[in-house]
Design goal:
The structure is a single chain. This protein has 102 residues and is mainly alpha-helical. It is built from 4 helices and 2 strands. The chain is flat and about 60 Å long.
Length: 102
C-alpha cells in the first residue's frame, strides 16, 4: 500500500506532513549529532555482528540468485496450472519442450 494507491495511507501521510510542518511533532533525532566515538562504536558492533552472521550481509540478502517477487508469482502460477517442462535458471524461466508434436 502506498499513498498513491490507498486513500487511508494518503490521509495519514498528509496528516503527518502537516503536523511535522506545524511543529506539533518533533522527530526524536532533531538537533542531535552523533559523536565520532558513537559512530565508531556502532560501526565496530555492526562489523562484529556481520563477521558472526555472514548470511546477513546485504549483498547476500538481496543477491540476484534469489527469486524476485514476479518470478515467485510466475512459478506459482505455472505450478497451479500444472504446466511442466520449464526450468528455473537464475532470473529467467526457460520453457523446454521435451516432445515436439510437429
Amino acid at each position: 500500500m502506498t499513498k498513491e494507491t490507498n486513500i487511508n495511507v494518503s490521509k495519514g501521510a498528509a496528516t503527518l506532513k502537516r503536523r511535522l510542518d506545524n511543529g506539533e511533532i518533533i522527530p526524536s533525532n532533531t538537533g542531535k549529532v552523533m559523536s565520532d566515538e558513537q559512530k565508531k562504536k556502532i560501526s565496530d558492533s555492526r562489523i562484529k555482528y556481520l563477521i558472526k552472521h555472514p548470511e546477513q550481509v546485504l549483498y547476500r540478502l538481496n543477491h540476484s540468485s534469489k527469486m524476485s517477487y514476479p518470478e515467485i508469482i510466475m512459478m506459482n502460477t505455472l505450478v497451479a496450472h500444472n504446466i511442466s517442462g520449464w526450468v528455473y535458471i537464475s532470473i529467467v524461466f526457460i520453457h523446454t519442450i521435451l516432445h515436439s508434436s510437429i
